[in-house]
Amino acid sequence: MIITDKFARKLRDIRISVTDRCNFRCTYCMPKEIYNSNYNFFKKSEILSFEEILRITKILASFGVKKVRLTGGEPLLRNNIHLLIKELTKITEIKDISMTTNGVLLSKKRAHLLKEAGLNRLTVSLDSLDPEKFHKISGSKYSPHDVLKGVQNAKDSGFENIKINTVVKKNINEKDILSMLDYFKDSGCIVRFIEFMDVGNVNLWEKSDVLSLNDIINIISEKYSVSPLERNYKSEVAKRWSYDGGEFGIISSISKPFCGDCSRVRLTAEGKLFTCLFASNSHDVKKLLRSSESNISISNYLMDMWSERDDRYSETRMSKNSYKPIKKAEMSYIGG
User: Fold this and answer.
1) Does residue 168 belong to any structural domain of this protein?
2) pLDDT of 268 over the 90 cut
3) Distance between CA atoms of 13 and 263, rounded to whole angstroms?
4) pLDDT tens per residue across span 32-71
5) DSSP states of 117-183
6) Which domain, by its residues, includes 235?
7) Domain at 329, CATH number
8) Across the strands, what pairs with 195?
9) What is the mean predicted confidence (pLDDT) over 230-248?
10) Terminal Cα distance for the chain, rounded
11) By the 8 A CB rule, do 54 and 87 touch?
12) Is 5 inside any structural domain?
């Protein structure tokens, strides 16, 4: 059964946060001033079990979901995540399973386990190749070398076309744009630059800190000849370009939003469903999963949820040229 929301958008993708914990403290996601030793992360009993994740995914797959992306926090901190992936591959309707990770836990063994379990694609976050800048942005003990080692382990395990996500913030790492493209040009990896977004409430977002799609293109065009590429599919979030034989993408949620084709729902580690990355309200499916409700009852609830969806925050955030901050879920909680 195919279901659509109030803007005729179909449900096609689910992003599943498997943990709220992370071994990084990125300034735009989990600033260490807040996510410190006093911060209360979820207890094991509070997060969804693999069985519960599979149950909700099977129901959503019956409505047209074909793609699953595993996120966090850092998804590789979830024990035996490869076992969840193996079970997800058994859901007939699911055609693509991917993961977003910071890469430092991608040991040879773990990369092999992920590939053998059936993970189709990997996206690795890397905001700078400069060690000092990397430490400042990530708030971690790791280095760019640790991330690059994880990328190589993934390639050695058979992963192809690995995407490298770089969040760009003005006056922080805009000078890294060309160095990222230079480094990954002949690697088989695709760099995607992400405009600094106002996800959550703790990253002190200001529009003046945003390096827009046009800004990024102008910087790249100083060195490379760039040409736009067609979208791989209708709801693809990244706009694509070629550059001297390579490829890069830009995710422009701020300057050129893509709400009109959004087909995603997001499941948090504690079992809340969000119909938009910037939503302030959620739907408690864990309560349903842990009750005596039948799959039919839960299905009806989810159908109503999606059919009532009218989210288009990225298109309306700057309405009347005045930004009005609202209370939103944090990036590490909602899973990006």
Assistant:
1) yes
2) yes
3) 6
4) 998 998 999 999 999 999 999 999 999 999 999 999 999 9
5) HT--EEEEE---SSHHHHHHHH-SS--HHHHHHHHHHHHHTT--S-EEEEEEBTTTTTTHHHHHHHH
6) 13-334
7) 3.20.20.70
8) 168
9) 85
10) 27
11) yes
12) no
Strand pairing report for 190-195 and 226-229: unpaired
On whether residue 6 sits in a domain, the answer given is no
Q: Give the Cα separation of 336 and 332 in Å (integer).
A: 7
* Residue 2 placed within a domain: no
DSSP string, 46-92: GSPPHHHHHHHHHHHHTTT--EEEEESS-GGGSTTHHHHHHHHTTST
Candidates 297, 267, 299, 296; CA nearest to 283 is 267
Name residue 110's amino acid: R
The arithmetic mean of pLDDT across residues 118-144, rounded, is: 96
Give dist(CA 205, CA 51) in Å, integer: 37
- 166-171 average pLDDT score: 94
Identify any residues that bridge with 163 across adjacent strands, giving them in sequence order: 123, 190
Question: Is 0.90 surpassed by the pTM of this model?
Answer: yes
Residue that has been written with the tokens 């760039």 in this structure: 226
Interatomic CA distance for residues 111 and 278, integer angstroms? 31
Domain tally for the chain? Answer: 1
Phi, psi (5° rounding) for residue 227? -140, 135
Q: Which residue type, as a one-letter code, is found at position 15?
A: R
103: left (phi over 0), alpha (psi -120 to 50) or beta: left
Where does residue 333 rank: exposed (0-12), middle (13-18), buried (19+ CB within 10 A)?
Answer: buried
**Cα 122 from Cα 261, distance rounded (Å):** 23
Contact 268, 52 (CB under 8 A): no
Sheet with 96-101: list strands edge to edge: 226-229, 239-243, 246-251, 190-195, 163-168, 121-125, 96-101, 67-71, 13-17, 264-267, 272-274, 283-284
